[in-house]
């Protein structure tokens, strides 16, 4: 279908974008890579009068170090995140999760920030960002504020980013020398996750010293599983020990039911995938 007509603007500065967004009021929409927004417009699930394209604001793109943090600009394309040496070295889990997003064409257009603000429960990056203790930088009419990952994902397709705000960058404490894996279960290649598991670990003397585990598509928002993280501490890298420590990962979750699987099937998948993710990472 053809979207409802809208005014298109492509500002070159963040201030200009914020002014355009404020002027548009409730009828404004930010365009990043367009991989989710354009289909939404074509299906007429949204009909904004003003679309503000962030693609020409260079300051929103790029990956850099800042002390003991890695910083990813909101407009950085998935391909760049998936292949960047700083991400590989200090935020390996993000690289692994991003490598599983869609196909190469979408990874060259879609952006890190766009995927996180879109907050699809089957999207792969929210769980990875949660496991990495990411902090989100958001600007709006009142200035800049920061939101921790635990508070960023509010509900289905809903984040802490307000209608008149823009996500500018995501900062993650470096997890250098941590090992990671992202396990994603799909029926066909390049599909959204039926269930996904993000795992990153620090290993010392052959045992797990620290762990971060988060689940994709096991509820309306990504879920961090701190009970399992605690159970993994001190675990030897042995299949039986890891299976015992991760067995309760799906307890208390409320996964969706659809043609891909009912909640019990998804709970089973989460248990199997968590064990695999921890073993593969280790
Ligand atoms: C066929 C297909 C398969 C896909 N498969 C997967 C997959 O397997 N796993 C996965 O995780 N994702 C998948 N995606 C989604 C992909 O990751 C998109 O890149 C992502 O959902 C949206 O990013 P975008 O940059 O295209 O954002 P857009 O589509 O441009 O925007 C998405 C939403 O976020 C808002 N927004 C974007 N950036 C900002 C910002 N900086 N500040 C405030 N608001 C902002 C927009 O207003 C819009 O509401 C798939 C997409 C397609 C089309």
Model description:
A five-stranded antiparallel β-sheet has the order 4-5-10-6-7. The protein has a four-stranded antiparallel β-sheet with strand order 11-12-13-14. The chain folds into three domains: 7-53, Uridine Diphospho-n-acetylenolpyruvylglucosamine Reductase, domain 2 (2-Layer Sandwich); 58-173, Uridine Diphospho-n-acetylenolpyruvylglucosamine Reductase, domain 3, CATH 3.30.465.10; 179-281, Enolase-like, domain 1. Helix 11 (239-246) crosses helix 12 (263-281). A hairpin with a 2-residue loop joins strand 4 and strand 5 (69-73). The protein has helices at 14-24, 37-42, 78-83, 85-90, 92-99, 104-109, 112-118, 125-131, 149-152, 226-232, 239-246, 263-281; strands spanning 7-9, 28-31, 50-53, 63-66, 69-73, 135-140, 143-148, 153-155, 158-159, 166-173, 179-185, 195-204, 207-216, 223-224. By secondary structure, it is of the alpha+beta class. The chain binds flavin-adenine dinucleotide (FAD).
Helical stretch count? 12
Content of β-strand: 25-35%
Helix content: 25-40%
Which series of helices and strands comes N to C?
EHEHEEEHHHHHHEEHEEEEEEEHHH
Shape: globular
What strand order characterises the main sheet? 4-5-10-6-7
Number of strands: 14
Determine the mean pLDDT. 97
Distance between the termini: 47 Å
Radius of gyration, whole Å: 19 Å
CATH topology of the largest domain: Uridine Diphospho-n-acetylenolpyruvylglucosamine Reductase, domain 3
Structural class: alpha+beta
Q: Major beta sheet, specifics?
A: 5 strands, antiparallel
**At CATH's second level, what is the architecture of the largest domain?**
2-Layer Sandwich
